[in-house]
């Protein structure tokens, strides 16, 4: 039987990053992946393909809708959308990225086993006919799309994000998206920009319900400009595949007796993802999942069997690729006897719409709930020179700082390039900067980053300069 210092089950950003870090630390590593390509949800059917679609659709949208203001004039009927070519490019990007992970496995001398990994006991994992032994084992099996009770994702008309990333036969005419979370907003935006009639149905009274409400309002404005219809406070009752169409029956929560229906080409279910442990044989290692299907772990990401760890979407916390990566590195370093650390409060969230949305740390409601006194400063992009030069003067940045110490406690932004701007907040908060610290730092002009400084100036004695 082949023996390894560590056997990692699952090759998503949690698993493959863990494998690389273990190899760097001198361990003999095996990684087990049930699919023929490495990279997990993130590279195959998640972050990478959705961002590739978001980029292509934004370029198309600029040509047909927003470039005119710059004096770039095209006859709308001369612009051709080659949906198949767009889709092929996405598949090429996926392949390049997954091949990159394969290269990294070879480079780091990590042994890859293809097949479903299943526990035999607390030290052995079976992959097909082969059984391998690990001194340590890391469960990094990720998550899969969830649905609502009674609604089955048939992958034909009732689809998840996985199918939405590879729709056959050209751009759909219409799509209903159930769930106004991250996937609903991002994938809804892709299709709305390409000209699909998109209706987004959300159960709560706000899309991205846990997000700062000012940021959510700015995002709603942007999505409506893309002609997306947004229905909040709705309860979906039934979704039926009619063959060539799908019928969605729903009610307003305030008027539950009045049934409403919409027919569309596709219904995208985007109501959350669930941890994935099917086929893993957890019981053979004396492990159980919790009431939400997650593998329970302690603060060191150890299960109750101390040499079996679990990381990423399959454990508690945000379902984000960078969180999975951080946990992968943590576990590798912990196994090597180091004292790694993850600051879970400083894992940024991003929605890659345009404008982008990004946030970090506490929200206003969390601070109120915890009775933490705070002050806030915000700055609108319409007052920023750099944003005007690009005609992208929408959205804002908000900083929340402690009322007496001035330490930055939360940052929320809906604005162009928020995904990159949020990193200034991560560095600032990791080093426990005050709003005054940021207000006194030179920011290059003209850049979007000046809005961050202006928000800090606003948070400290209301002294924004450009408003
Ligand atoms: P996964 O990436 O899910 O990988 C788990 C792997 O384990 C899979 O390859 C699976 O096949 C394999 N596996 C499972 N069971 C077994 C078994 N028994 N044997 C062998 N192999 C097994 N996050 C971001 O941070 N930014 C984004 O922009 C972003 N965009 C997203 C867009 C979409 C459409 C989706 C669906 C998700 C997105 N996410 C994003 C979330 C991100 O993809 C996940 O948080 C991340 O992939 C989790 O990593 P993981 O390693 O825990 O699991
Ligand atoms: P989500 O949790 O972000 O959003 C689900 C949405 O569905 C919520 O707004 C929720 O209120 C709504 N909902 C729940 N029940 C409903 C019902 N009965 N009717 C209507 N709406 C309902 O989940 P998601 O968008 O499916 O994404 C899954 C995971 O993937 C998330 O945890 C997210 O972190 C990750 N992801 C991240 C990114 C990113 O980082 N940019 C992109 C895509 C996905």
Structural description of this entry:
The protein is α/β, with parallel strands linked by helices and 467 residues long. The protein has three domains: 2-145 and 274-344, FAD/NAD(P)-binding domain (3-Layer(bba) Sandwich); 158-271, FAD/NAD(P)-binding domain (3-Layer(bba) Sandwich), CATH 3.50.50; 355-459, Enolase-like, domain 1 (2-Layer Sandwich), CATH 3.30.390.30. The protein has helices spanning 13-24, 40-45, 47-66, 83-107, 161-164, 182-194, 213-225, 321-335, 364-369, 385-389, 418-430, 435-439, 450-459, and strands spanning 2-9, 29-33, 111-114, 117-119, 124-127, 130-139, 143-145, 158-159, 174-178, 197-201, 229-231, 234-241, 246-252, 255-264, 266-269, 273-275, 308-310, 349-351, 356-361, 374-380, 396-402, 408-415. The longest helix has 25 residues, at 83-107. It is globular, with a radius of gyration of 24 Å. The protein starts with a strand and ends in an 8-residue tail after the last helix. The model has no long low-confidence stretch (mean pLDDT 97). The structure holds flavin-adenine dinucleotide (FAD) and nicotinamide-adenine-dinucleotide (NAD). Residues 9-15, 32-35, 40-42, 46-47, 50, 116-117, 140-143, 161, 183, 276, 279-280, 312-313, 319-322, 324, 352 line the site of flavin-adenine dinucleotide (FAD). Residues 148, 178-184, 186, 201-204, 209, 236, 270-273, 318-320, 350-352 line the site of nicotinamide-adenine-dinucleotide (NAD).
